UniProtKB/TrEMBL annotation:
Protein name per the record: ADP-ribosylation factor-like protein 11
Keyword ATP-binding: no
GO terms for MF: GTP binding; GTPase activity; metal ion binding
High-level lineage: Eukaryota, Metazoa, Chordata, Craniata, Vertebrata
Family assignment from sequence similarity: Belongs to the small GTPase superfamily. Arf family.
InterPro entries, sorted: P-loop_NTPase, Small_GTP-bd, Small_GTPase_ARF, Small_GTPase_ARF/SAR
UniProt cross-references to NCBIfam families, sorted A to Z: small_GTP (TIGR00231)
Binding site for Mg(2+): 23, 40
Superkingdom, taxonomy of origin: Eukaryota
General function of this protein: May play a role in apoptosis. May act as a tumor suppressor.
Claim: Cell wall biogenesis/degradation is one of the keywords in the record: no
Length: 173
């Protein structure tokens, strides 16, 4: 899946810890199906057609600890950063918060809006978006537009709404 530089589609980047559900989410967006995914080494990329006029290039970047140092190489031309968290994984929220803070401090993301997807809302112990936004310290973000939305990549819930909102964020910027 080489990157086609002639595509002037807005670039959207999915980041988040390993096992947050980024690849499942991208696969569901692109195919409408649930696929078995293995940990992403490097990245997956696909074009998502929102409507006849609008298409987004969506990058899904591996989230394992060893990969996170490479995240900054994907930030050129990023129009919206989509940070995916597993909303049922209470134990890793502080790790997610640190990873998010670190990437948002990158100069290339100055002024780039943030969409947080609280994934796995189909699980009984998942946190509310209010809990997730507090644990990620989203209210403390200064000078950046952000939104948070609950979704389930497994069930396909909330994905279309999320990407409709992401498209609006791009148009506003």
């Amino acid at each position: 899946m080489g990157h086609n530089h002639s595509c002037t589609c807005p670039q959207v980047i999915l980041m988040g810890l390993d096992s947050a559900g980024k690849s499942t989410l991208l696969a569901h967006l692109l195919t409408g199906q649930v696929m078995d995914t293995s940990p992403t080494i490097g990245f997956n990329v696909g074009n998502l057609d929102l409507d006849k006029k609008t298409s987004l290039t969506v990058w899904d970047v591996g989230g394992q600890k060893s990969m996170r140092t490479n995240w900054r190489f994907y930030l050129d031309d990023c129009q919206v950063l989509v940070f995916v968290v597993d909303s049922s994984d209470h134990a890793r929220m502080s790790e997610a918060q640190k990873a998010l803070k670190k990437i948002l401090s990158d100069e290339k993301l100055r002024g780039v809006p943030l969409m947080v997807l609280a994934n796995k809302k189909d699980l009984p112990n998942s946190m509310t978006i209010r809990e997730v936004s507090t644990l990620l310290d989203l209210p403390g973000l200064v000078g950046r537009r952000w939104q948070i939305q609950a979704c389930s990549a497994l069930q396909g819930l909330g994905l279309n709404q999320a990407f409709t909102s992401i498209n609006k964020m791009i148009k506003k910027n």
